[in-house]
Amino acid sequence: MPQGVSSAVNIVLSVFAMICAGALLYRAGWLDDSGARLISKLVVMLALPFMIVGNLFGLFDRESMLESLPKILLPVASILINMAAGALCGRFAGIPRGRRGVLNCMFCYSNAVFIGVPVTKALFGDEALPYTLMYYIANTALFWTVGIAMLRGDAGVKAEPGDIRGLPKYLAFAVRRAISRRGKGATELDPSLERARNTAGKLKKALPLPLVVFVACMLLILWGARIPEDFFLMSAANYLGGMVTPLSLLFIGTLIMRMIRKGSFRWHRGYEWVLVGRFVLSPLAIWALAAAFGVGGQMRDVFILQAAMPVMTQTSIVAEAMGADSEYAAGATALTTLLSLAMIPIYMAILGGA
Length: 354
Prior knowledge:
Blueprint: H1 3-28, H2 33-59, H3 62-68, H4 73-92, H5 97-108, H6 116-124, H7 129-154, H8 167-179, H9 194-206, H10 209-223, H11 232-241, H12 244-262, H13 271-292, H14 297-307, H15 314-322, H16 326-353
Helix pairs in contact: 1-6, 1-12, 1-16, 2-10, 2-11, 2-12, 2-15, 3-10, 4-5, 4-7, 4-13, 5-7, 5-13, 5-16, 6-14, 7-14, 8-9, 12-16, 13-14, 13-16, 15-16
């Protein structure tokens, strides 16, 4: 087996080892459902934001970001095409409404960070990293905007009447209640601010912390801001961001073991479309768009390989946080990660002959 393919297979096996560790911890009772929820919050609210800061400021400056932005249109277009195809597949397959958003996220968003980055680096070398990060930016930006909306829809989140004009007064009330000891003087909400509270809740759900951090970092980089690599904040960001992969995979392991105990870890309707979307339609969309716009060489090959990665690990974590079907996502994540052991050599053979 070629060295690059062997390294990629080792990476996937290490991912499975961490998933198995999470399953064993849940089985041994070291992790329970409350512990799994804590891991989910740690990833989404702490580790992921710091990982985004470390990755963007560590790998981009203003010039490289401006150079990369036009090239991001290719993976953005391919993901949007797959999103439309995933919605059609969900309807065609008769997937219940409470799972269609999860299925679409699994269909069109790939594991561009946890598996995609190390696999691409192992197969193409460090010179492919800029193209890898272009796909990562497109994948991440769309997941934390459109993908979040689809998962919220699965959870049955309904829009409550809101009032943007009363938002400043409600925020002032919330601040007073937070800083006052035991909430004295700010325990009762004025009924006239109830609609403003609904508006604040909708904004909080529509703008998850990782998305806010992602947009803020991109704007700061485009403005010309830089953080020195030896600055303590970058070191902290790299350490905390490094928790994303192991914590996410431990979380998936706990979900899988919980499904095994409940007898629900089995093939579910829609998984066949997830496999088609991940390993066939997603890379095919990139190939067709690259051919149409004359994009070739290493950029095309990296984009195709990134598009053919397993289900995005964060799908099950965010689904849990949103109240969507996280177990449905965890099963497909494990399945596609396992099948990627066979798909990586196949795609390398195809790309090597292209």
